[in-house]
Amino acid sequence: MSTPTLRRFVISYSAMLTFMVAVSSYSLIQLGRLSAAAHIAVSIEQRMIDQADGLADAFLSEVRYGGKFSVTQAAVHYEQYKEFKADFERRMYQLKALATSADAVQRLSQTEEYHAQYQQLFEREVEYIKKNQPYAESRYREEKERLVDYLLREHAAFKSNLEKSLQHRIGYIEKAAQESQNFTLAATLLLAILGALLACWLGGRLPQNLVTSVDSPIAALVSHLRSSAWWKGLGVPK
């Protein structure tokens, strides 16, 4: 292979290799971004939404059994109230550990504050009930209802923000995946075109040189074999 042809081959190979490395690098970067976004969406935001639903259920059960105890004064209802209270606190702890945005942390803190106020109010009511002391039942009931309303509003806003963030992230994943698909398709077509162009450019002097460089050794080998005594022993004609 002559020097000009060899130079063309090296240039063509280098260009193709550089282009393939660039395409592979872009694909790896995009896959990394998609993987990170999917991890956040599934492992964090969706998990927080599930925990938020459980938090609301635990609080409503806490309120329900607290109300039953106020009416029946049965110890079993108070124990059930404490169980759901512990469940609420456990879920709140998990949500605060997962929260990353300032808005989510602020809303969880406000929800926790409303819950603490509700607990304090209910525990004072429990003391009156256990001591058989009269107290302003209507005022306590109205205050508890107000705190329940505040807490559920805060919870609804918190969950709504999580769902919006999740939808936004899913939209980003879909858009990035579509862009990556379009880029890969365009890069494949461009690579095919570039390969054809480089082959044509490389083949400008390649056929003649290739025939000459390959034909000479083969012709010499055939001539040597035909003149060999080994062929004569087999009866093969020269």
Describe this structure in words.
- It is a single chain.
- This protein is an all-alpha fold.
- The protein folds into two domains: 3-204, Substrate Binding Domain Of Dnak, Chain:A, Domain 2 (Up-down Bundle), CATH 1.20.1270; 206-238.
- The protein contains six helices and no strands.
- It has helices spanning 3-72, 75-98, 102-130, 137-202, 206-226, 229-234.
- Helix 1 (3-72) runs antiparallel to helix 2 and helix 1 (3-72) packs antiparallel against helix 4 (137-202).
- The longest helix is centred in the first third of the chain and has 70 residues, at 3-72.
- The radius of gyration is 39 Å and the shape is rod-shaped.
- Residues 205-222 and 228-238 have low confidence and may be disordered.
Rg over CA atoms, rounded to whole Å, is 39 Å
Amino- and carboxy-terminal Cα gap: 32 Å
CATH topology of the largest domain: Substrate Binding Domain Of Dnak, Chain:A, Domain 2
Total helix count? 6
Secondary structure category: mainly alpha
Total number of strands:
0
Poorly predicted spans: 205-222, 228-238
Which strand-content bin applies to the residues? under 5%
Task: Note the main attributes of this structure.
Substrate Binding Domain Of Dnak, Chain:A, Domain 2, 2 domains, 6 helices, disordered C terminus
Helix/strand layout:
Elements: H1 3-72, H2 75-98, H3 102-130, H4 137-202, H5 206-226, H6 229-234
Helix pairs in contact: 1-2, 1-4, 3-4
In a few lines, what is going on in this structure?
By secondary structure, the protein is mainly alpha-helical. The protein has six helices and no strands.
